[in-house]
Amino acid sequence: MARFGNSIRLLGNAEFASLAGTAFARSQAYSTVLIALALYADLFGTTGTVEGLFGTAFAVVQLVVVLPLGRAVDTGNAKRYLLVGFLINVIVFVGFVLVESPTHVILVRMLQGLGASVLWITGATIIGEVSPDDSQGLWLGSYNQFASVSSLTGDLLGGYLLYAYGFTETYAVLSVITLGSFALVYRFLRDDPGGRTDPKDTGGLETFRSLVALPMLRSLVVFRFSFSVGKMAVIIFLPIYARTTFDISAFAIGWIMAGGKATKAVTQGFVGDLTDRYGWRHGFVGLGAALYGVGTAVIPLAAVAEGQIAPVTVSYLGGSQTLGGAFFALFAAYSLLGIADSIRLPASMSLFVDEGERHEAVASAMSLRSISWKVGQVVGPVLVGATMDVTSTETGFLLAAGCIAFSTTLFAVHARRAAAPDRAAA
């Protein structure tokens, strides 16, 4: 039966707990850096196009490495790749302490893209490999759930550290958390937890061709190409929008982002359990994507709310924050986006793992999942940023919502056709 407590009980499994630590460290760093990017944009007075490059630089490296990395994880020792990913992230934090220009930020973001790829692909692959077949959705959903808890912590703790202490102390804390997760994986995760495929049995290109030939996986790949254009624009520009347009502090930006992470943290494992129980995973993906488009279209209402909702002053830790209407509008929009992701993500990951298992190439399937996202992640921030430069910030968010609506409609048509043969066989 689907229950929220099932995710907590999984922490009793030492391997799952160590992998949850991986998700925690990765998401903590990612969320905190997003807030830091808003501060860099304000500090250096960047244009929308340059701000878009903050996101594109991260994705370009991932676009190059995800396919060979996925194949390497399928055929090699996944634990070693995971440990290397932690060390790369520590180097990234040192790099961010030293940045002195937008160019430096872009270069360090490229290195961060490499480290994040290693942790994400390897961690998700290992979870898919070691999870029991009858509770795969629960394991994947719970893995994402703990990542969401970490993202929420990154938004609140990272936002506060950036607000109260600055960059150096914040990155020092992130380094300690990352090295702690390194120690957990080194101690508790079995050696060589993945790598079921013999590289002599099939070439990497043949594996990817066979995976793309699967109708459902092909539908998911096409969907993620266009959906990622809209979503990555939201992820990059919402914190920058809050800072540069409404002068919202780093700590308050963390609260905004925490609204979406809180809904994901609470519901994602539960929804993953529901997909195990009821199936119809492509329906969950479509519903979540449609809801994400609605949430994105709500973001521009922050400009209206700023003059309509009376400011509220909140006191804490001997200080105070004055929160205007834009804060509440952005908080509501990001919370809705969190619910949408909770519906979509566990089902999407389960579909990719299921399709990958047909060819004993789960990591390769996850690599396709990642690379399909990276194309939109490379194009989306620059496209939307340039649109914001030419028109307005609000128009850029509406363009992102349009991309999401288009991708959702396309997926609904193709996934329904792809699922028909499986329903007939059942």
Offer a quick outline of the entry:
With 426 residues, this protein is mainly α.
Describe this structure in words.
- This protein has helices spanning 5-9, 14-44, 48-75, 78-97, 102-130, 136-164, 167-188, 204-212, 215-246, 250-278, 281-298, 302-308, 325-357, 362-390, 393-425, and strands at residues 312-316, 319-323.
- The radius of gyration is 20 Å and the shape is globular.
- The model is unreliable at 199-203 (pLDDT under 50).
- The chain has a single domain (7-195, 204-425), classed as MFS general substrate transporter like domains (Growth Hormone, Chain: A), CATH 1.20.1250.
- The chain has 15 helices and 2 strands.
- A two-stranded antiparallel sheet has the order 1-2.
- It is mostly helical and 426 residues long.
Number of helices: 15
Q: Major sheet: order of its strands?
A: 1-2
The total strand number stands at: 2
Oligomer: single chain
Q: Which bin fits the share of residues in helices? A: over 70%
Strand content: under 5%
* The CATH superfamily title: MFS general substrate transporter like domains
Low-confidence stretches: 199-203
